[in-house]
Amino acid sequence: MPSRSVLDPLERASEVVFGLLMVMTFTGSLSVATAGREEIRSVLLAAIACNVAWGLVDGAMYLIANFAQRARGQATLATIRRTADAAAAHLVIRDALPAGLSSILTDAELEVLRRRVHATLEPRVAPSVRDDLIGAAAVFLLVFLSTLPVVLPFVVMTEATPALRVSHAIAISMLFVAGWSVGAHAGRPPWRSGLVMVAVGLTLAAITRALGG
Fold it and tell me: Rounded CA gap, 187 and 184, in Å?
């Protein structure tokens, strides 16, 4: 399995929302009163191409983050092993842990962790490049596929006005689901998080269009 969670709700929801905002910026630029099929086609192709590019960038950043995370973990373990002073090793362990967890651990508990590191042999198995590539591909597909439902109405419907309305309804629904997922993961009321995500998403999309994005 990849060393980082491919479907971590907080990270992936932010990427899905970013993709939705980009495609909403494109679809929102259409003038439903004057847009012809050729103009709609050009806008949709631009939106899809933009999200393909973002998906590729996101997948590449996933690989880089995986590499950096592993390198940092290995460096931390090496520092703990070569630090003779227990108090100094405790500081290294505290710095490596999340702040909320680090603040509640006692020195005795940190010492248990330090001894555990010294008692554990350094792993010799190289990380799986295949797993990393699968994870990067999954991130790309998630970002790319999340935008397809928003552009699909323009493909299957002949009238621009109802297609735009359906597209916006789908985008709002997906923003709500993304917010719901984040809220449920963070222990907050999911419906409230969903509504906040919708409000924030629509506001950001409007600002982006106003700034010419």
Answer: 5
The answer to whether 111 touches 83, Cβ cutoff 8 Å, is no
Q: Taking a C-beta distance cutoff of 8 angstroms, is the pair 20, 150 a contact?
A: yes
Both tokens of 44, joined, read 């949709």
Cα 63–14–6 angle (5° rounding)?
40
Residues 51 and 168: their CA atoms lie apart, in Å, by: 17
* pLDDT band per the 50, 70, 90 thresholds, residue 2: very low
Which of the 8 DSSP states describes residue 133? H
Alpha carbon distance 51, 65 (integer Å)? 20
Q: How many residues appear in the chain?
A: 213
Residue 171 structure tokens:
């985008």
Mean pLDDT across the chain: 83
Q: How far apart are CA 115 and CA 185, in angstroms?
A: 33
Q: Give 99-137 pLDDT, tens digit per residue.
A: 888 889 999 999 999 999 988 876 655 667 888 888 889
What's the distance, Cα to Cα, between the start and end of the chain in Å? Answer: 38
Cα–Cα distance list, 194 to 18, 30, 51, 172, 200 (Å): 15, 26, 23, 10, 10
Q: Give the separation between CA 203 and CA 17, rounded to whole angstroms.
A: 12
For residues 91 and 79, the answer to whether their CB atoms sit within 8 Å is no
Is the pTM above the cut of 0.85?
no
* Radius of gyration for the alpha carbons in the chain, expressed in angstroms and rounded: 23
